[in-house]
Amino acid sequence: MPPRSKIPRPTVKRLSLYLRELESHIERDQQTISSKQLGTALGLTDAQVRKDLAYFGQFGHPGIGYRVQELTNKLRHILGTDHRWNAAVVGAGNIGRAVMPYARFARKGFDIVAIFDDNPSVIGTEIAGHKVRPMRDLPKLVRERDIKIGIVAVPASFAQQVTDELIRAGVLGILNFAPVRLDVHDAVSVASVDFSLSLEQLAFQISLGMTGPLEELSP
Amino acid sequence: MPPRSKIPRPTVKRLSLYLRELESHIERDQQTISSKQLGTALGLTDAQVRKDLAYFGQFGHPGIGYRVQELTNKLRHILGTDHRWNAAVVGAGNIGRAVMPYARFARKGFDIVAIFDDNPSVIGTEIAGHKVRPMRDLPKLVRERDIKIGIVAVPASFAQQVTDELIRAGVLGILNFAPVRLDVHDAVSVASVDFSLSLEQLAFQISLGMTGPLEELSP
After folding, report:
1. Is pTM beyond 0.95 here?
2. Are residues B128 and B176 in the same domain?
């Protein structure tokens, strides 16, 4: 694999799409797939598909294309979806309470194993089976429970401070729900959730007169 | 413009990216941009950029490329981002309470003007300045307040029923937070928000060793 800095972000974003398309081919019992088929399904050129996948190794077989199961396994391994990740939520407000029991996380391999908040009125209360812990417990629990991902669900004004504490505690990535850009000094990975982008896409579809379900809004 | 069915979904998804890139060029006072520059910024081929934009008209000028302000205005108009949209939330639970005061919606041209829930214990209470109304008030308010978008923030088991009522009331689009695929009989547009996709992207970045902020996870 080339150095991480050489892999373009749009390529990373497309990997979920490749994986989902491959999984639907497995369900339909199709053994092989060409870059052209993958491209057509996702609205990409076959050259783009080959270029994206080439960042991770030589997967294609001349005259055959890609072996679906083989490529799926390799992508899953590269992308870390073949193991489970422990995550912790910081912030027991509306967003934190909404994501705690979010069943799709578990299905994708993520287990939320702790929730933190410094508000005395919520510390000790239970949310989705987990007692809310004070922030001072964070370093110990991140270590003990092998927490790799911190989910920031606090107001914008606290998000940076919480992020700094999560980084010090040793998480590898931050999922940020706060409407603010976080500074992580290149120490960890960050992804942000902005609902307004989904609403914007919906408005586009309405304006373009496109009805019916759009597949989930994925990168 | 060609019939809507001819515009590929991935093209629609890329329009926000084009728009954002163009807006950053305006901020930097750059008057023109080539399909190659746009493509490089977004990890697309220049051919893909030209093909995407050609669905909406002939925007390029030979030897010049695209005039940034002109293309921005045309895209904004096509995409309906040059006017405001009224939206209503159904479901006064955690997600509903989290999105009601979401400032980024207003900044992108969306105004949440009502919230509905049939739980007697929340009807009449106030959330972000709006009284929670019973579902029976929905048809009247959609008409009176020109509500075009319904935000479904109810548990999965109620989502389809709520969607049917929103469609009957006359909304044009549904933003769905419930973890279920909605059937809209091609009557309206639908976009779904799935937090687990963002978490998956974050895990990819960690696995690939990519640190630092990823731009917001956009389609």
Report:
1. no
2. yes
